[in-house]
């Protein structure tokens, strides 16, 4: 993840842009004019849809994004350009075509349910003149891109001539093209580096009923051969991602909760493009895309995902390295804020944890049971020495933090240099503050910032001091 956080690839998205428009309200009566519901609109929201959702995902990951498309010369087109400019996306390669309608999909939602959707758009192929303008524009800048994405929503922008022209220009400049395909005929994508069809799309395109690994392999090989792909890939929904380079490889999904799969395909192709641009292997890329999809399906509506969210999600699955769980004050502040927005209960405890033993582990397991996220404040070496004496700590802070972070019960470790974690507790304002049972009747630092205090008894006979005494006794 560290390498990905440094990456800022320049990625071009070409495809069908649209505006997703939402009318939110309540419904309490039926119209006297007709047997239809009357919705009292409370608010309106708009977000980028179609290829625009791919752009949003790339932008959230930290990419530099440019876009190329064809829209109408209308109010919706002006609104769409404004939305792109507001997030810093280069829209200079967007062409307006006379007589074309910019896509806008309006949804009426009441009591969290979609009541009605109405669309205003053109679905005919763009003109050959528009194709030529796009290709001329891309020819001048193609070598400046790290990756090109073709996001096909079947609205006419990615007609055959444009797809073939873009792929030819990109291949001449050794720029990979990734395609989120549409329809049953993938021939116009021939020469792309990889496609991201889902299982249903792959079945339609290959005519192979995918029902086991053998048929999956045949479908992947057919796509690879007929479309002349660098790597063949099929997304398998809850079963993850399958790829074929020189052999079949399966990457299981890592979604914990699925609330909405809207836009998950956009997240997958955006994360694949981002990771490949950063130099990751296809195996690392597929794993990264699965993590990104796991985050986004846990959200409502077309959503995006950030690298920090992916890192936190990976940490929650306990599939990351220990150092990914060790955070600074500023990092844990951002994590806590995001966690609260997602309704998570934050638990905090602290200590020296010099020589990790079973008493520590059981204490932390109980602490974690009080909420969703356990944050452990860890005394620095200097503060341990001030509290425990000049012969302590036995283990340096870096080692203590790494061991704590490896525990399943611990979500994050935050080292602090003061004698008490007062400032850290003040910043986190935990839902539950946990201390040892020996604090019964005593003042506990930071309780004024916590919603609740819990005292947990230690395991009898288990302590760092007793462990040290035993070691010293055995060496006498």
Description:
- InterPro entries: Bifunc_HldE (IPR023030), Cyt_trans-like (IPR004821), PfkB_dom (IPR011611), RfaE_dom_I (IPR011913), RfaE_dom_II (IPR011914), Ribokinase-like (IPR029056), Rossmann-like_a/b/a_fold (IPR014729).
- Residues 10-304 form the Carbohydrate kinase PfkB domain.
- The protein is of the alpha/beta class and 476 residues long.
- It has 2 domains: 2-316, Ribokinase (UDP-N-acetylmuramoyl-L-alanine:D-glutamate ligase), CATH 3.40.1190; 325-474, 3-Layer(aba) Sandwich (Rossmann fold), CATH 3.40.50.620.
- Helix content is 37%, strand content 25%.
- It has 16 helices and 18 strands.
- It has helices spanning 2-6, 51-61, 75-86, 128-141, 160-172, 199-206, 213-226, 264-277, 282-296, 307-316, 329-341, 358-368, 381-388, 397-405, 422-428, 464-474, and strands spanning 10-15, 17-30, 37-50, 64-71, 90-96, 103-110, 113-120, 147-151, 176-180, 194-195, 232-235, 241-244, 248-251, 346-351, 373-379, 412-416, 432-436, 452-456.
- The strands form 4 sheets. It has a 6-stranded parallel sheet with strand order 5-4-1-8-9-10, with helices on both faces.
- Strand 14 (346-351), helix 12 and strand 15 form a beta-alpha-beta unit.
- Helix 2 packs across helix 8 (264-277), helix 6 (199-206) packs across helix 7 (213-226) and helix 8 runs antiparallel to helix 9.
- The longest helix has 15 residues, at 282-296.
- It is elongated.
- The protein starts with a helix and ends with a helix.
């Amino acid at each position: 993840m560290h390498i990905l956080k440094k990456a800022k690839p320049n990625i071009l998205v070409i495809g069908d842009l649209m505006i997703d428009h939402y009318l939110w309200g309540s419904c309490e009566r039926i119209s006297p004019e007709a047997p239809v519901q009357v919705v009292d609109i409370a608010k309106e929201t708009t977000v980028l849809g179609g290829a625009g959702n791919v752009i949003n995902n790339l932008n959230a990951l930290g990419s530099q994004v440019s876009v190329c498309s064809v829209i109408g010369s209308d109010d919706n087109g002006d609104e769409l350009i404004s939305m792109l400019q507001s997030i810093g996306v280069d829209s200079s390669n967007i062409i307006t075509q006379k007589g074309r309608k910019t896509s806008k999909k309006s949804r009426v939602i009441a009591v969290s349910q979609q009541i009605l959707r109405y669309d205003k758009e053109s679905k005919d192929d763009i003109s050959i003149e528009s194709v030529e303008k796009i290709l001329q524009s891309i020819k001048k800048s193609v070598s400046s891109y790290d990756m090109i994405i073709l996001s096909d929503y079947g609205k006419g922008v990615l007609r055959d001539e444009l797809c073939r022209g873009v792929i030819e220009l990109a291949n001449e400049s050794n720029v990979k093209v990734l395609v989120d395909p549409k329809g049953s005929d993938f021939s116009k994508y021939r020469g792309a580096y990889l496609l991201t069809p889902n299982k249903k799309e792959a079945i339609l395109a290959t005519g192979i009923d995918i029902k086991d690994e053998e048929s999956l392999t045949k479908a992947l090989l057919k796509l690879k051969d007929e479309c002349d792909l660098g790597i063949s890939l099929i997304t398998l929904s809850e079963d993850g991602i399958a790829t074929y380079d020189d052999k079949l490889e399966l990457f299981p999904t890592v979604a914990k909760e699925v609330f909405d799969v809207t836009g998950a395909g956009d997240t997958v192709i955006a994360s694949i493009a981002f990771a490949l641009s950063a130099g990751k292997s296809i195996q690392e890329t597929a794993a990264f895309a699965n993590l990104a999809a796991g985050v986004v399906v846990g959200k409502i509506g077309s959503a995006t995902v950030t690298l920090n969210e992916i890192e936190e999600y990976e940490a929650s699955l306990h599939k990351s390295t220990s150092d990914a769980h060790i955070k600074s004050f500023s990092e844990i502040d951002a994590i806590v804020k995001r966690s609260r927005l997602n309704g998570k209960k934050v638990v905090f405890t602290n200590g020296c944890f010099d020589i990790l033993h079973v008493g520590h582990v059981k204490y932390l397991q109980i602490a974690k049971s009080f909420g969703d996220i356990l944050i452990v404040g860890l005394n620095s070496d200097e503060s341990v020495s001030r509290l425990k004496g000049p012969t302590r700590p036995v283990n340096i802070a870096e080692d203590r933090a790494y061991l704590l972070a490896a525990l399943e019960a611990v979500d994050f470790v935050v080292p602090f240099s003061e004698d008490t974690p007062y400032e850290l507790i003040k910043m986190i304002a935990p839902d539950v503050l946990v201390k040892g049972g020996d604090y019964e009747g005593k003042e506990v630092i930071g309780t004024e910032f916590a919603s609740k205090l819990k005292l947990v008894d230690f395991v009898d006979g288990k302590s760092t001091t007793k462990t040290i005494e035993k070691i010293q006794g055995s060496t006498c």
